[in-house]
Amino acid sequence: MPEPKILSFDCETAGVQALKSDLGFVILFGYKWAHEKKAHVLAISREALRRFDDRELLIKASKLLTEADLIVGHFASVFDRRFIQGRLLINNLSPIPAVKMRDTCMIARSVANYSSNRLKHLAKILHLKNEKHDSLWPAAWFQVMQGDMKALAKMAEYCKGDVLAVEELYFRLRPFDNAHPRLNGDRSKCGVCGGNVEYRGVAYVNNNRYRRFVCKKCKHWGREANKVKE
Fold first, then answer.
1. How many CB atoms lie within 10 A of CB 127?
2. What structural domains and CATH numbers belong to the chain?
3. Residue 186: what pLDDT?
4. DSSP state, 42?
5. Among residues 12, 161, 166, 199, which one has the fewest Cβ atoms lying within 10 Å of its Cβ?
6. Residue 175 DSSP label
7. Residues of 25-43 as b/e, b for ≥16 C-beta within 10 angstroms?
């Protein structure tokens, strides 16, 4: 079975109200495949920026999101994906498929009670190698809206840093993510990373019992699909 294609992403927006897809538009789409070493950014062109036209950028971003088996973002289930879908609708473009998503903000919120679930705070307290950079808001955004492509290039580097931090945070949180979808079809292996497992104890679901196991590689817990025969 081929390795699942995991895409970490982040989008940067601008406009009259850059948090709403009918009042703003996408200017950057940062992404990284799990097997790659570097993050990449799709940027709006100078001509498209003058027209506030993100159509071509959305077409390229949609292609990447469509190729993924799993997408990862921070607060992306609330903002990024919904913003992109709103812009696809406005641009009369096809929707992206219902790709499974893991939102690192929501995972952190569900498994711990930290004082903040912002990406910068989580990267700091978990001592991630890829810490989130200081925000360029609002100066860079205003400069971009005035057509400053150098400011856009600075924002692109900022966006890459966010993507790297999101991906590292995802892999750090993944062992604690009990709701993570199974990515490996071999039921004798870890459903998350495909590693070998060690059986430890029993999991109870309603009146049924299942053998419980922990992955030797990623430390994620799981259970067998078939219940223990009495």
1. 8
2. 6-176 (3.30.420.10), 182-230 (no CATH)
3. 84
4. E
5. 199
6. G
7. bbbbbbbbbbeeeebebbb
Taking CB atoms within 8 Å and a gap of at least 24, the contacts of 82-86 are 82/21, 83/11, 83/13, 83/19, 83/20, 83/21, 83/24, 83/26, 84/11, 84/21, 84/26, 84/58, 85/21, 86/20, 86/21, 86/22
Cα 30 from Cα 164, distance rounded (Å): 10
Please give the structure tokens belonging to residue 78. Answer: 């609330």
User: Tokens representing 41?
Assistant: 């950014």
- Per-residue pLDDT at 1: 58
CB–CB of 205/178 below 8 Å? no
**Model confidence at 230, in pLDDT bands (50, 70, 90)?**
low
Measured distance CA(93)–CA(214) in Å, rounded: 43
Report residue 108 as tokens.
Answer: 């952190």
Token pair belonging to 128: 């991630």
